[in-house]
Fold this sequence. Notes:
Blueprint: H1 23-26, H2 34-39, E1 48-61, E2 64-77, E3 81-85, H3 92-99, E4 107-112, E5 115-116, H4 122-131, E6 133-136, H5 148-160, H6 162-182, H7 198-210, E7 216-220, H8 228-245, E8 248-253, H9 256-259, E9 264-269, E10 272-273
Helix pairs in contact: 5-6, 5-7, 6-7, 7-8
Amino acid sequence: MSDVAPSQPLRIDPESKGDNMPASELNSNKGLSKKKLNSAPLRIVDTSVMSVNGLFKSYGKGAVQVPVLKGVDLEIEEGGFTAIIGQSGSGKSTLLHLLGTLDAPDSGEIYFRDQRIDNLAPRQQEYLRNREFGLIFQFYHLLPELTTLENVLIPRMVQDGFFRYLKNKRSYRKRAIELLEMVGLSHRLTHKPSQLSGGEMQRTAIARSLISDPSILLADEPTGNLDSENGAEVMETLTALRKHENLTVVMVTHDDQLASQADRVIHLVNGVVAS
Length: 275
């Protein structure tokens, strides 16, 4: 399905990159090494890019409702790395899904760049997910019949439609190869998921989440299926990419050690932000 721009006024520039890194730099094919990524300057704009007011969410049918979020208020700073930590059932994954417009709250409001987004039409929310939000999940969701490079290109195929994708395929392919090189997978371009380790599959998923040059990366337990060594590599990759791509990163986790690597840690306990 191709992108559909919001029909009502939505003050979101699909090409905005947080602090406006030049498009030529974003789309270059420099083949950056891990050392280059880690030394890239980090530019943080001290403003709120997302905010949540009085968020409630329950699941169930009819009279049987299980409250998950019970009045969450928080702000996400532009260019920051925010970790939302909590035990299983605390509501952290539900909160991340609401931030990414994958689900709707029962009540409350979610704002992105001062524009309310929880009540937008589905096609407008799809536009946001395609252009502004990069999503990473605990499970990699790679298509087994496609190569690593093809899996990374899938969002562009879906967004553009057949003819527009063919027209831009060369530049998209260059960008996908650059991202795979950044995450240390330049030697795995033609490998299929069954030929990759768990860490390699998650790094492929990270590259896929960045192919549309989002401004925010939403990561749901990105190391949850990995051993400690692969988990550490994924965290190193996320931290380095956040610097080079000028991303705002929001990650949910139950791991205190992983959360400690973020700029800010929000504790979610029984559906509310702990004071």
